[in-house]
Amino acid sequence: MNSHFKNANWVGISHRDFFYNGLLKPDEPLTKATYTATKQEAQKRGLYSAIRFQDWTSEGKPADVSDEQWKYEISIGTDYAVSFGRARYCARLPVSEEQFKQVISFLNGRNALYHNGPKTFETNVLQDNCNHLTHNALAAAGFWHELPVHQFILKAALTFPVPKNEVVNLLDQTQRHDIGNLHALYHDKLTRKSLMEDGWLPTTPGVMLDSNPVKTPNEVYNTQLSLIFYDDPLLGHYNKAFDRYLNQPRYHDLKTNLLWYQGLYAKAAAERKPLDWWLKKEPAGFAPFYNAYYAWLQKQQDLVQRGLTLLSDDASAASGLMPTQPERPQGEPEHANGL
Q1: Global pTM?
Q2: Which of 52, 77, 136, 149 could form a disulfide with 128 if both were Cys (CB 3.0 to 4.6 A apart)?
Q3: pLDDT tens-digit readout, 231-261
Q4: Any alpha helices (H) in the chain, and if so which ranges?
């Protein structure tokens, strides 16, 4: 999403690595040469070939730079090669194929509003910013409730989404209920709907937190950056929650993540109560939910086991490619380096 756009809300960038790092290789510094080469490559790929920019974006354009070249100059680090000038915190949320289709449909619908006119895309921080777009894309998949755009300005000032806050909100949402508490899951309308319609619950393996600083050394951008929270002055939930997530290994290491979910699902399965027990407490409509829940739980346990097996196989294959250290004859002393 880019305020420069006139006939689109957002643009898709093919190839994950180019989106994040442009033409930079891992551990390379950002030089002016790589910066220029990345802009040229982006234009070669035609990232903005169908995008018209707002008239005001031409302010400050040098006379020897074409309008098309200028698009890539003012958008690098925002739509592509984002790590050149930005630190980032990203939360990863696995979704079902059907949910992914719902996300795509929502995003395409947003662009359709502006693609052929007569509406022109306009954005502002409080009423329609880039986090409204990502938040509502997940809302379309049933993950959480929609956050309306273009609200009355005073209301918008109290509810507008902020990037770092949204990371915490997403991670909070994945564990808003104890996965073994079927009563709470059933009586949460959104959770019940996602299970019954999509066979999905947000407590799923693969929920990860990815944090990356701006590229350094850096010949182009100021690297002294810090993303901020808009936090509650009394409770201060966001800073505390973010530190808690950063300090939990399961949000950064896939094997640790899978093992954690393996234990969580095993506990839920071991504490299973028969349906008759639940029907003494819950309405008759609880039965289909109960059956769907335990079908989901079994699939999740199978998914975790497959993931752990694949990781184990990959580790074994990698170790098989490593040269083995020849064994020393028994009794032969180990030599010090360089001697």
Answers
A1: 0.85
A2: 149
A3: 565 566 888 899 999 999 999 999 999 999 9
A4: 16-21, 32-45, 67-75, 97-115, 130-140, 153-159, 163-174, 182-187, 189-198, 237-246, 254-270, 275-279, 286-321
